[in-house]
Design brief:
Elements: E1 14-22, H1 25-45, H2 52-73, E2 81-90, E3 93-101
Antiparallel strand pairs: 1-2, 2-3
Helix pairs in contact: 1-2
Length: 102
């Protein structure tokens, strides 16, 4: 379901994201920072006509693939993961996401 508004332009109004790093101090911190930045950038880069659920799923999938690649390539980040929670407000609709990203 796409976000609809009475104005001619529909947009995401608020993106609030919290991530908690896991898998060691450095790897967890890096995972949490990348997940938050990647999720926000992913959500704002896609057109709202796709709908917030699809936008959020695409952004999370992209972040998860990136974290998995970094985990494999950098031995210091081995086992990096994070738990991410997000609230996306679009008009009068609120969307909650909660995932384990690795």
């Amino acid at each position: 379901m796409a976000c609809r508004r009475s104005t001619t332009r529909a947009a995401i109004d608020v993106i609030a994201v919290v991530a908690y790093g896991m898998g060691g101090a450095k790897g967890g911190r890096v995972a949490a920072e990348l997940a938050v930045r990647g999720f926000v950038e992913g959500c704002t880069a896609l057109p709202i006509t796709r709908g917030v659920p699809q936008i959020g799923a695409h952004a999370l999938d992209s972040v998860n693939r990136w974290l998995h690649t970094l985990d494999r390539l950098d031995a210091q980040l081995n086992g990096m993961a994070c738990i991410l929670g997000a609230l996306v407000l679009c008009g009068r609709q609120a969307h909650l996401l909660h995932v384990l990203a690795r």
